[in-house]
Amino acid sequence: MRRAVSAVGFAVAALVFGVVSPANAGTSGVQEVAKCGSLSNGEVCIIGPDTGRTGTYRTEYCKSSGSGDVYVQLGYQIAYDASDYSDLSAQIMDSPLYGVWAGSCTSYSRHLNVSSDNCVRGVMKWQDYTYISKWYC
After folding, report:
1. Which of 26, 43, 91, 119 has its CA 20 to 30 A from that of 136?
2. Is residue 53 part of a domain?
3. Residue 77 has pLDDT above 60, yes or no
4. Signal peptide position in this chain (predicted)?
């Protein structure tokens, strides 16, 4: 129960204040922005720098409800032409499988070279299903 309460508190704080990684917490002027997609039992997000396009992006999945552990793989997808999403790159799915239970989160970070006219979104795979976050442009 305590784990669920702390996860809910983190989720509320993240929505109100945004998410700051420990690596960026002490750096003045550097913030992260989260773009999330809501699922029936959680949320998948892409979190990245708010300035510039190249940098470290983090795909994060938080499971808020549901019974049992699920094993997910996290990755990214890049749209190379922000005005036309029909030209999408292949999904980058190179994370290991992560176990996630209700009230917990997992994340995977990767440095991406992304120009100012590209968009990135987080991708999560569970069994034969693929879930995505909102586009980060």
Report:
1. 26
2. yes
3. yes
4. 1-25
